[in-house]
Amino acid sequence: MTFFFPFSLQKFRAHRTRRHKSQDFVISLHFFNRLISEEFIRLALSLMIRLNGATAAGTFLLTMVYLWLGGRVTIALAIIVSYAILHKEYNVSNEQGQEKTPAKTEKKEKKHTCCGGKGGANCCSSKAGGAGGSGHACRCSSKNKAQEKKEEAKEEKKGLEAGSFPVAVDFTQAFKPQKKKSTKQPKVFSKPMPTKKKTASRDDDFKKSAMTVSNGTLLNSQIYVFYCTLQGTAERYANRVMAQLCTMRDLKQRPTLINLDEVTDLDDYFVSVPSENSLYILVLPSYDTDCPLDFFLQTLEENFNDFRIDKYPLRKLVGYSILGIGDTETWPEKFCYQAKKTDHWIARLGGRRIFPIGEVCVKTGGEPKVNEWIDLFCETMKDDEPILYEYDESVEDDGTENDEMVDLEDMGNAEGNNSTVIKQMVAKDSPTYKTLTKQGYSVVGSHSGVKICRWTKSDLRGRGSCYKHSLFNIVSSRCMELTPSLACSSKCVFCWRHGSNPVSKNWRWEVDEPDYILENALKSHYSKIKQMRGVPGVVAERFAKAFQVRHCALSLVGEPIMYPYINRFIGLLHEKGISSFLVCNAQHPEALANLCRVTQLYVSIDASTKGELKKIDRPLYKDFWERMLQCLDILNTTQSHQRTVFRLTLVKGFNMGEVMSYADLVQRGKPCFIEVKGATFAGSSDGNGNPLTMQNIPFYEEIKTFVKKFAAELQRRGLGYDVSAEHAHSNCVLIASTKFKMNDEWYTHIDFDKFFDLLASGQDFTPLDYVAKTPEWALFGNGGFAPGDTRFYRKGKKKIPETEKLSSTYSAAFVNSTQQEPVRGETAASFEIA
Ligand SMILES: Cc1cc2nc3c(=O)[nH]c(=O)nc-3n(C[C@H](O)[C@H](O)[C@H](O)COP(=O)(O)O)c2cc1C
Ligand code: SF4
């Protein structure tokens, strides 16, 4: 208004000046100009608003016309003021005469409930309502008048503020078009938000907010370059990323290179993050067969679905990016599919993709493409244009009830490619197959392995048997070492598999029939035995008997109890007169509880405390400790009819500290035997995820000291155990339940014929029913070397004098079985003991 009037007045003045040249009019116009100032207009308008009616507007307009025609300002003002007074009086009389609104009715009713100075239930002055009495001074009237006026004034003010008089029910909004609930997403989202949300509890605010990452943040970040490799390409490219990053002067922190296979606990990086300023780059190949990436992806997916874990743990990262490498020619449908899957899961876990995923074909793109990606990535780091992070909801909801991501393999199937088949654990064309066969394993079917044991060869040549010969009466030359599951649910630091076998919590592969496995395992075993016929020193009689396997050590690598038909397989062994020595890792209580009768049942107890167990076994299960305790309870209850053994593999610096807590576990599981063995040195730690060095391999003297302390603690608790037998050469000592000590003589050996007789009888029997006397040479203190075998010293190796025994080192480890000196460890290639 203040803008409009001056403008109109200028026009008006010009116009009027042209039409009326008389002096009088100029004077009156001058007056008019002065008086019709902003102040006058404001006053007139406020009066008009107060009066609020057509009459008021009409009066105002007429007054203005009057002024425009040269009327006197004082008269104009007088008209407006008198109209206002008249109008107000009319309104007051109208209100008194009529009850126009419910608000006013209420006020009237209140007046009626006044006690009138008598007090009573509705008395205005009674606090407790009705506590009035004599002398009560009713304040109704005074209140009513003064306060009502105030209230009226308030309401009136409200009405004026709203541009209308107060009404009981406000219908003014009723006919306004209703605002739709916006389903539109902020512009930063590339796709509309799904309407159906399965995960209502998720932090929507987080998802919906656009975030930017500045180059300052990127350059200050601690970069971790992860890679996973089977054949070395990804490692090479990861090193290239590292080299390129290191040339960036602006980068504040030195990047760190990490092999995903060597990460003890993926949660350290993919549930928690090393620091708030961490940035991840992942260089990943793809394999359509089993490879370590399967476990990595499985972990990411499980973390996402684990309700105990923060839904978006990776939002703490500054960002991430993935460089995928693959082969688009041979695997067009699955090109870089594991890199893409990783990208999917990291995004779902809250990671911000700060640079597009690279998909490089090693055949068609190769190194130039990789370099290009790396260069662009580094440029992005430096660019001070902030990176806008857009959350892609397509990763959030795939529209299915099941929270599972649609497997890319299934997508392949939808397009007509028959690639939905369950994978083979170790397919013939897989790198795992190559690695295992290179290490001397025969892969049977797609998930079983057999390998002729070093002790089998040694015994064939009359050079000594393994420790199980001393402790339990196994004949090594007639023993087959086999596993029906090359996959395992732990990644023990002392395992000699060199990270080559698949890892998984549960069985998720094709299953071979037990008879097929046994038949082919025996074939493989016998063919390897046959190859021994030309080896010097092979004892003809032992060689002949070796073609009739009598024992099967179900261990080797992997977790045999994971095999779904393990009971049927054991049944077949027993049918053939082959005894069964099954070693399990105490991570599958259900399978353990359902296990059929075996000749001897081992449970690996690799540590006595939760923390140590996690460090040493690197179990895949989060509830690994509870699982182990459950397994011990099963040994003491459901499986108490079995001949049970705790196997302790001692690793210096990892699990040799705690005798008390080991005793607790024995108290819980009540095994028949406790086999304490020093860890075997499984070669260098380079690239196999095995962090052990020779310093972690205990001397035999250290093992003996530990065992004595342990047995003393068990006796102190009245548990009835004692040290019984040994095989010094294997760094192995046996603690046995004193139930196996009869007439002061140990009966730790097995009477295999008796075992099969009992089994055939169908009767219930106990471990004490098929025992045999422990021979003198095997008793603790006698070394455990069987008479009849010949001591053998490697060429150039002298027998170690007694005085030097305790200081024998790694070089002394690689000696033959005839040597009884205390040793520290064994090499991976030849000292695998089942
Ligand atoms: C058995 C096998 C399976 C493979 N499967 C795929 C695949 O499904 N998709 C893909 O893009 N590349 C596949 N590749 C190609 C590898 O991803 C590629 O060779 C990569 O460079 C290997 O990386 P690495 O040397 O670090 O192990 C496969 C290669 C082999 C040997
Ligand atoms: S080390 Fe194992 S596989 Fe080898 S002979 Fe002894 S029990 Fe059998």
What would you note in describing this structure?
This protein is an alpha/beta fold and 834 residues long. The chain folds into three domains: 4-93, no CATH class; 204-394, Flavodoxin domain (Rossmann fold, 3-Layer(aba) Sandwich); 431-813, Alpha-Beta Barrel (TIM Barrel). It is 38% helix and 12% strand. The protein contains 28 helices and 21 strands. The strands form five sheets. It has a ten-stranded mixed sheet. It has a five-stranded parallel sheet with strand order 3-2-4-5-6, sandwiched between helices. The chain has a two-stranded antiparallel sheet with strand order 1-7. Strand 14 (644-650), helix 25 (659-669) and strand 15 form a beta-alpha-beta unit. Helix 12 packs parallel to helix 13. The termini are far apart. Iron/sulfur cluster binds at residues 453, 455-456, 466, 468, 474, 476, 479, 481, 553, 833-834.
